[in-house]
Automatic annotation (TrEMBL):
It comes from Allocoleopsis franciscana PCC 7113. This is XisI protein. Pfam families: XisI (PF08869). InterPro entries: XisI (IPR014968), XisI-like_sf (IPR035943). Coiled coil: none annotated.
Length: 107
């Protein structure tokens, strides 16, 4: 298995684990969105909480230029440590939501 396929599988496994969590309140569904053609992977929340509509990304990761780009991480503990623990080297992870001078992953 080549590196990009392995990293794609790891990203999907980590997101799928988060998708198993049940939000603590409201009627909210967690949906995985996996696009292997464009290397885009997301966890979305959709539903209702306290009479208000809830929708949007919780996680958004892309694979590009031989790196794993964490575009958005709305998880309390963050997914970077999970990605590293699953086998992605820290130097291949870019925290794209930080200013460019701070984009190296720190675990």
């Amino acid at each position: 298995m080549d590196t990009s396929t392995r990293e794609r599988d790891i990203v999907k496994q980590v997101i799928q684990r988060y998708a198993q969590f049940k939000p603590s309140h409201g009627h909210i569904r967690l949906d995985t969105v996996f696009d292997d053609t464009q290397n885009r992977y997301a966890l979305m929340q959709v539903g209702w909480d306290r009479g208000r509509r809830v929708r949007g990304n919780l996680i958004y990761v892309t694979l590009s230029e031989g790196k794993v780009w964490v575009e958005y991480d709305g998880m309390e503990q963050g997914i970077t440590k999970d990605l590293i623990a699953a086998g992605i080297p820290p130097e291949r992870i870019v925290l794209a939501f930080l200013p460019e001078e701070q984009t190296a992953a720190t675990a």
